[in-house]
């Protein structure tokens, strides 16, 4: 990555995003997005999220701090947008809604900062730590909901929360349909029935 610029991080990010035609990528409801991510993936209140990620967490190392070049190789998601959380430890984190395929390009134009990529359905979180490792946490909000004693109500509450954070009905339905296929393949019929019940409710969501 290039050396730090004299500008503020906010200005640096703004310039890099604008240069890549991603200038209006900051999310609305930022406090709610950050709270949902922390609740799902982080234990306690560590100095940096990656120090307290909930398991299971898979780590991969890359030489010369080149992890940002391999984000698409490690992330479970293929295409689409993610939440990109940028944290320099000195101010409130920035949160952007940008294509997964473009995050590495933006990082290449900026100083070193801690960052996190998060599926907008809260299925997974990908972080780069200060040792050059990419850390992937996959015990996401949907799986946590299905493990709850009241899975249908818990999953439905999650869908309403995600809808309030900007995901549209089609995105939510697609995520649950994809999950439902995997659950049937894995023989998890009880969990699949819970997902199907929530899919029925989503059909009437405005």
Structure in words:
The structure is a single chain. By secondary structure, the protein is of the alpha+beta class. The protein folds into 2 domains: 9-139, no CATH class; 142-202, no CATH class. It has helices spanning 9-19, 30-41, 71-74, 100-108, 141-146, 151-164, 169-185, 189-202; strands at 57-61, 81-87, 94-99, 114-119, 125-128, 133-137. The protein has a 6-stranded antiparallel β-sheet with strand order 1-6-5-4-2-3. The longest helix is centred in the last third of the chain and has 17 residues, at 169-185.
Q: Helix and strand layout, with pairings?
A:
Elements: H1 9-19, H2 30-41, E1 57-61, H3 71-74, E2 81-87, E3 94-99, H4 100-108, E4 114-119, E5 125-128, E6 133-137, H5 141-146, H6 151-164, H7 169-185, H8 189-202
Antiparallel strand pairs: 1-6, 2-3, 2-4, 4-5, 5-6
Helix pairs in contact: 6-8, 7-8
């Amino acid at each position: 990555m290039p050396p730090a610029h004299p500008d503020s991080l906010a200005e640096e990010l703004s310039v890099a995003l604008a240069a890549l035609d991603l200038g209006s990528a900051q999310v609305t409801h930022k406090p709610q997005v950050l709270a949902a991510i922390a609740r799902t993936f982080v234990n306690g209140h560590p100095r940096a999220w990656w120090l307290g990620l909930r398991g299971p967490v898979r780590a991969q190392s890359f030489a010369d701090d080149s992890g940002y070049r391999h984000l698409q190789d490690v992330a479970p998601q293929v295409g689409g947008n993610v939440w990109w959380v940028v944290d320099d430890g000195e101010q409130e984190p920035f949160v952007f809604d940008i294509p997964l395929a473009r995050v590495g390009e933006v990082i290449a134009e900026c100083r070193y900062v801690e960052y996190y990529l998060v599926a907008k359905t809260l299925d997974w979180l990908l972080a780069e730590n200060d040792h050059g490792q990419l850390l992937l946490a996959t015990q996401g909000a949907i799986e946590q909901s299905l493990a709850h004693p009241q899975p249908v109500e818990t999953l439905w509450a999650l869908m309403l929360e995600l809808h309030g954070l900007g995901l549209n009905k089609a995105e939510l339905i697609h995520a649950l349909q994809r999950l439902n296929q995997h659950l049937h393949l894995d023989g998890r019929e009880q969990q699949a029935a819970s997902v199907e019940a929530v899919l029925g409710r989503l059909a009437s969501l405005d």
